[in-house]
Every structure is written in C-alpha cells, then in structure tokens.
UniProtKB/TrEMBL annotation:
Quaternary structure and partners: Homodimer.
Cofactor: Zn(2+)
GO molecular function, one term: dihydroorotase activity
GO cellular component, one term: cytoplasm
Biological role stated in the UniProt entry: Catalyzes the reversible cyclization of carbamoyl aspartate to dihydroorotate.
Protein name: Dihydroorotase
Entry binding sites for Zn(2+) 2: 127, 164, 202
Binding-site positions, substrate: 36-38, 62, 164, 247, 279, 291
Pfam families attached to this UniProt entry: Amidohydro_1
Pathway: Pyrimidine metabolism; UMP biosynthesis via de novo pathway; (S)-dihydroorotate from bicarbonate: step 3/3
Active site positions, chain numbering: 275
N6-carboxylysine: residues bearing it: 127
PROSITE patterns: DIHYDROOROTASE_1 (PS00482), DIHYDROOROTASE_2 (PS00483)
Length: 373
C-alpha cells in the first residue's frame, strides 16, 4: 500500500523555501529469509537490529562449531530468544520477532537427522555450503553425490534446501564461481531431485536469475541489498573497500541491473534475504579481510532505496513481505511497518563483542528512506 501525503515544506527559510513530497509506505511486516545473527555476545547487537526490521528471520547455521542437528538448533534458538528479551526495542517488534532455524548439511548428515528435524516442527530448512566456499564453511559438503539419501528425505519431508551457490575449485575465477555452480552442480541437482524445494541464496548474476526463472515454482532465490545497490566498481575503484566485500563477490554492473529487474518484477520466485553477516571492523579492515556485509540495522531503508531508484517502490511489499512466506507455505504477518522517504544517516559503527566495533554497510552515508518510529 503506497500513499503520498500532502507536500510539506522541507526548508522554512523564506529565501530557500522548497517543497518536497514526503511519501509513506505501510507494508505487511517483512521477513528476512537469510541472516547471520552469530552467537554469544554478538546476539545482543544482531538480534535487536534484526527484530527492529523483521518478523521471521531464517538464521544461518554457520556457527563455530556449526548447527548440525535439531537439538543444537533448538538450543541456538533459545539463546536468540534470551538476547531478544534483553533487547532495547519496542514491544511490538519484540513480540513479532520469530527466528526460524536451519541445519548445516555436512558429509555426515543422515536421513534420520532430516526426519527428526521435520518432526520437530522447528526447523525451516537445511543449508548447503560447498566446503570452503565462504565464511565458516569448512564443515560443508565435499561430495554432493554422497548426499542422495538426505536429499530424498528432504523431498519426502518437504524441507527446503538453501544453497550457497559457488564452486570452490581453485582454478575457477572468483567472478565465475556462481555461474559455474549453476551450470554444473545446481543443474544436476534439480534434474536428480525434481521435487526438492530449493532457494539459491544471495544470487549475484544474471546467470543465476535466468536459471531460477527457467525452473518450476519449487526453485526460488534470495537477493541481498548490496547486490541490488552496488557492483564490483564500488568494491574496487579508487581503493579496496572492505565493507563491500562479501561472498558471492559483487559482480559487473550488468548483473546488478538484472538483479534489480527481477527483484522489482513482481515475480514471486525472488524475495528478500539480507545475508547480513557481521564481522568486527578490525576483521574486515585487515590485510586478509573477512567476507560479509552487515546490513541488519538498515536493511529496509536499503531495499527501499534500491526499489525507489528504479521507480518501483510499489513492488517492495511483494518482495519483502509476501513472496518468501508464500514460498515457505507460511501465512503473511499480521502487523505492519511504515517506511518514509525522510533521510537517515547510517551510523559509523555499533559497539560489538564488548570491546570491538561493527561497521554497517554504507556507514556514515545518508539513505533517502527510513523506518517511521
Ligand atoms: N556472505 C558472506 O560473505 N559471508 C557469510 C557467509 C555466507 O552467507 O556466504 C558469513 O557468514 O560471514
Ligand atoms: Zn553464502
Ligand atoms: Zn549468508
């Protein structure tokens, strides 16, 4: 639902009086279908930020050690809920917050693990990290061929498979790793398991978008704010900008354009997943900087900025609030959130892990949209 309020005076000085239209959009409360909250002390920062923006969030299992079974996932969820109880956010947001858990697929995951996850009613999906593809993926799958019984069980119990879609072969160029994965591993997987629900996470290329478009309604994709707003020039021109470094890495501007096209097309195969992935500032601004952009605190203003940049703010609600829930077979949220195109300045950093700091995406910059308090 989009409505414009009457023009308001932006500057009341009599010489420079200018009028500006303030637009408000009230949305069904959105969900984030891919987020890293981390664990321990991290939760006091990440949970408050996530809950201020989202209702349901799918929590990635790449902790150290990873979340491999239902028992560990439930214990992780209670740590998140404890952090929520202490979060300094309004009560409506607190009540609406609903973390959904995932299991980390390893070479030793069994069909029995999948059955147990499904019967618990508490596990939303299973996450596939090709071993070595990204942060904390060392325990990921080394041989997909050996996981057939697990994928069959997932089909049977209708547990979706969430995929970090990059090959890890040393000889494949980092900018080609997603395309190569789509052309080989992913194409084979959907052929072999046609009833498996799959989300290709954080897509970054036109190739991945085309693949998802060519498949049945069982195959969908999430898109991050950074891949809609930026391309590899933002990462590399004029000096390396470590806060734009995430995996899969930002690609050419042509790919960014395709992602914007599909995200704003109204096609329900594409929905919101921030991939907000906190690393302390000193771990990013480092000779070997970690991969991951932190966006949980400003996610909705970022997406609104991206959608508005192509005149498609009216398509934000489907992408952010409807399509993910529909894919997972869940009801829409019954509360709302209002965004307004009044500027906000992104904080330079947040306190993190007692003595450290956390630098968000676009730190210190001004975004044209903010959440109405
Ligand atoms: N996206 C990233 O660059 N990093 C994520 C892992 C992931 O989602 O690949 C992280 O956990 O830091
Ligand atoms: Zn990933
Ligand atoms: Zn991620």
């Amino acid at each position: 639902m989009t409505h414009n309020t009457a023009p308001t005076t932006a500057d009341t000085s009599d010489t420079a009086a200018a009028t500006q239209e303030v637009r408000h959009i009230t949305l069904t409360r959105p969900d984030d279908w891919h987020i890293h909250l981390r664990d321990g002390l991290s939760l006091s920062t990440t949970v408050a930020h996530a809950a201020a923006n989202f209702s349901r969030v799918i929590c990635m299992p790449n902790l150290v050690p990873p979340v491999k079974n239902t028992e560990q996932a439930l214990a992780y969820r209670s740590r998140i809920m404890q952090a929520l109880a202490h979060a300094d956010i309004d009560d409506t947001a607190k009540r609406a917050f609903d973390p959904r858990m995932t299991l980390y697929l390893t070479d030793s995951t069994t069909a029995e693990d999948i059955k147990q996850a499904s019967e618990s009613g508490m596990i939303q999906a299973v996450k596939l990290y090709p071993a070595g593809a990204t942060t904390n993926s060392a325990d990921g799958v080394t041989n997909l061929g050996g996981r057939s019984a697990v994928f069959e069980a997932m089909q049977k119990y209708k547990l979706p498979l969430l995929i970090h879609g990059e090959v890890t072969d040393a000889h494949v160029d980092i900018f080609d790793r997603e395309k190569q994965f789509v052309d080989t591993t992913l194409s084979n997987l959907v052929r072999q398991f046609p009833e498996l629900k799959i989300v290709v996470e954080h897509i970054t290329t036109g190739d991945a978008a085309d693949f998802v478009l060519s498949q049945s309604a069982l195959v969908a994709a999430t898109i991050t704010p950074q891949h809609l707003l930026f391309n590899r020039n933002h990462l590399l021109v004029g000096g390396v900008k470590p806060h734009f470094y995430c995996l899969p890495i930002l690609k050419r501007q042509q790919h960014q354009q395709v992602l914007l096209d599909v995200a704003t097309s109204g096609n329900p195969k594409f929905f919101l997943g921030t991939d907000s992935a906190p690393h302390a500032t000193n771990a990013k601004e480092n000779a070997c900087g970690c991969a991951g952009c932190y966006s949980a605190s400003i996610a909705l203003p970022l997406y609104a900025t991206a959608f508005d940049s192509v005149g498609k703010i009216d398509r934000l609600e489907g992408f952010a609030c409807h399509f993910g829930a529909q894919f997972y077979g869940l009801p829409l949220n019954n509360s709302t959130i209002t965004l307004v195109n009044e500027p906000m300045t992104v904080p330079q950093s947040y306190p993190y892990l007692d003595t450290q700091s956390l630098t968000p995406l676009m730190a210190g910059e001004t975004l044209p949209w903010s959440i109405k308090s």
